[in-house]
Amino acid sequence: MALDTRAAAASVLGEVLAGRSLNQALPPFVDQVEPRDRGLLRQLCYGSLRQAPRLQAFLERLLDKPLKERDRDIQGLLWCGLYQLESTRIPDHAAVAATVGATRALGKPWARGLANAILRRFLRERDRLLQEMDEAEAHCHPPWLYRKLHEQWPEQAAAIVEANNQQPPMTLRVNSAQLGREDYLQQLREAGIPARPGALGPEAVYLERGVEVEKLPGFGAGLASVQDEAAQLAAGLLSAAPGEHILDACAAPGGKTCHILELQPDLGRLVAMDVDKARLQRVGENLERLGLSAELVAGDGARPPAGLAAGEFDRILVDAPCSASGVIRRHPDVKLLRRPGDLPQLADQQLAILRGLWPLLKPGGRLLYATCSLFDEENSAVVRQFLQAHGDAALCATAWSWGEATACGKQLLPSREGPDGLFYSLLQKEG
Q: Which stretches does DSSP call E strand in 282-333?
């Protein structure tokens, strides 16, 4: 018997509240609901998390006392109910009834009266609750994140916040080794899928609306991959040449690895490394679909495995672990899971990875440092500290026409109909 959709969403949100990522929590529940309801499940989970700070502010004002930790699923259910009333076309009475009914599916019938009371009270008191909300809550951001965005990007913060709260566009990377972008756009038109070319990446295509990948022309044959336009820039910026040895040091899930090979199939060696063995399998799956091959190595960039020799690589790509503050619209759980104290720890990790990988780079070789963060602590500040400690490292002069100039690179900011927020910095090893 299929699981009630709202009960499934509540369970997913409860796991996120307990500290699991949405990418970990959601997949096991997708197959437990009716196929026709899977889109609704995803909408409830992603939508509730995008609005979580706002929904929680409502809930705290409506509850007489906080829910217990063991009832995180009920908290998630109430978020789902409030989200439906706030942001969907589901009639109020239907949203309330379905949410209340899900308490039984969760095995917590005691919460039936609570859910009914909270949601109906919200409908009565919505105007007052909105007036009581502070600015960060009203814009669906935790206060520290909202404040930090305005501190570091005062002129662009409003647009960033708006983009963070939107469903992101579905963006494709056309496999230029097989066909040109215009040819693929024509195939999309013939399939009745409206699309437009990207402005930055020569292989980027934006779909007017998302579709299942199985419906994309030639997806199984490797004609296209799903990848944000900002992420697509990495392979071009790396500028690998025939015969060169390339290391993609934080490779999973493999989009950049595959793109490097699509642009330059005549490499001497390409190593795709990741610290997460499970995620490394996804790199292999993506390579297989595209008919490409690379060496897969499980390893930590801060302590590279012995099989990677000093001075071996002409190019190294470091897509470093980060706060993900530039891709919140794709990973809305960041609003819940990330804390301001995480930034110094992440910066230390990023610096350790750069230090660990630098000996693997040939003299004259180049390292491209990338993050999906908007914060200087993880971007220019890390690069600056690395340069100060390594006399053989120099910042490359670039003519990149896109993005916002920073002290040690370029920053793309998330935009409503455009790319995600990524930082890039290009370093060269002298000597």
A: 295-298, 313-319
The angle that helices 380-389 and 342-357 make with each other, rounded to 10 degrees, is 40
Q: In angstroms, rounded to a whole number, what is the distance separating the alpha carbons of residues 51 and 187?
A: 36
Distances (CA, A) of 398 to 24, 33, 395, 402: 38, 50, 9, 11
pLDDT in tens, 373-388: 999 999 999 999 999 9
Catalytic one of 80, 140, 322, 372: 372
Q: Whole-model pTM above 0.70?
A: yes
Residue 18: how many CB atoms within 10 A of its CB?
A: 11
DSSP state of 310: T
* Token output for 170: 């579905």
Q: Catalytic residue at 372?
A: yes
Closest CA to 142 of 337, 318, 323: 337
Question: Kind and range of the H or E element at 394?
Answer: strand 393-395
Delineate the domains of the chain, giving CATH numbers in brackets.
Answer: 5-140 (1.10.940.10), 171-226 (3.30.70.1170), 229-429 (3.40.50.150)
**For 304-320, what is each residue's pLDDT tens digit?**
999 999 999 999 999 99
The answer to whether 139 and 150 have CB atoms below 8 angstroms apart is: no
| Buried-exposed string 345-374: b where 16+ CB fall within 10 A, e elsewhere | ebbebbbebbebbbebbbeebbbbbbbbbb
